[in-house]
Amino acid sequence: MERALRRPEDGLSRSPTPDRTATAGISEAADVALAAAGDQQAFERIYRIHVARVHSLARRMAGSEGDADELTQDIFVRAWERLKTYRGEAAFGTWLHRLAVNAILNWRRTEAGERQRIDEGVDAELVEGRKSAGAERLDLEGAIERLPRGARQVFVLHDVEGFKHEEIAAMIGVTTGTTKAQLHRARLLLRALLER
Amino acid sequence: MDTHLGELLSACVDGELSGEARDAAERHLTSCAECRAAYDDLLRLARRSEALDDRPPARDLWPGIAARISAGATVIPLVTRRRRLALSVPQLAAAAVVLMALSAGSATLLTHRAPAPVPATGFAPVSLAEPIPRSASAKGVESYDAAIRDLEAALATRSPRLDPATIQAVKQSLALIDGAIRQAEAALARDPNSLYLNNQLERALDRKLEVLRSVTALAVAS
Prior knowledge:
Number of strands of chain B: 0
Order of helices and strands of chain B: HHHHHHHHH
Number of helices of chain B: 9
Shape of chain A: elongated
Largest sheet of chain B: none
Largest sheet of chain A: none
Radius of gyration of chain B: 28 Å
Distance between the termini of chain A: 26 Å
Structural class of chain B: mainly alpha
Strand content of chain A: under 5%
Low-confidence stretches of chain A: 7-23, 116-124, 127-136
CATH architecture of the largest domain in chain A: Orthogonal Bundle
Oligomer: heterodimer
Order of helices and strands of chain A: HHHHHHHHH
Distance between the termini of chain B: 73 Å
Mean pLDDT of chain B: 69
CATH topology of the largest domain in chain A: Rna Polymerase Sigma Factor, Chain: A
CATH superfamily of the largest domain in chain A: RNA polymerase sigma factor, region 2, helix turn helix motif
CATH class of the largest domain in chain A: Mainly Alpha
Low-confidence stretches of chain B: 73-88, 97-139
Number of domains of chain A: 2
Radius of gyration of chain A: 18 Å
Helix content of chain A: 55-70%
Strand content of chain B: under 5%
């Protein structure tokens, strides 16, 4: 082996919500206070800072740009309505990110109920994704979009967002054994998609 | 380990194995080209995934958000908010005093120190931005300072909208809280490792932030 196996302490370095710079945090604290008091211009500044992160999370979790647009709007409206509950215990970005994850997971539960159980559609969904991909060479973002919903959800939360299996299991109400199995399946599917 | 690693490959990539399990996996990867190739691919994939860049939506979503929050089905109208806040500010000042009195350390302070004199009108010359020396041992003091500075700046531009009596009440509250902050810092200078004193300082800073947030909210709504 060229490289020893990764040890637990190596970990993935990405944190769920990267801290903003101190300067951004300072001005943001004032904007959050103003927005909580009803100042929409301050809230728009907050939106501009965080929209790329929230939309990227929504796009990867939902698997489509259209759903991500709708989810992003819902998340910011919900954030506006709940700003008064933000007490500053965590960084604002962390609070917003957690709110976004919860909103997306709730949306996904509804989606799953309206369509079918996540695991039942795995093979059909992947095949459909392959058909629609045609001969096009996929980049990683495109390949993630073509994952089955359950595997995509766990993959995005773990490998992209940096959540631990225990956290993901608690959020979506399954065991860590399930999240580990879903993660491995997602990785193998991505490997196959990217090799095509 | 004769069989392929299967799901253990992901555990290897995530560094979740230790001890004998890890040694066995390493031995297998040394001898199994198929698992080794998969391991290398999954490791590269994990690294690419954590480095993915965020990108904004293709279209500006703000107009839709602004329209919805302006419609505000569940958002409290500004008029209502203003009325509630206008009623609460004198109570806010009183509450700050009560909180001070309930604090053992602060109660001592109140018996030895009168509130600092405040100007009769206007917020611009107020001692809100008065620099306060800090104990290096007080955790998170810099972040408090930053938030306080920003709120003070926001308030300075909006304070002319406030009623002079409200301004006076807020100034008195802030003067009391600043006194508690100085007292805690003076004590911390003598005993920098005191958990109690550090907590007192944090509580006083929290109170100052809360007063500033509330009065800024009132000024915005005015």
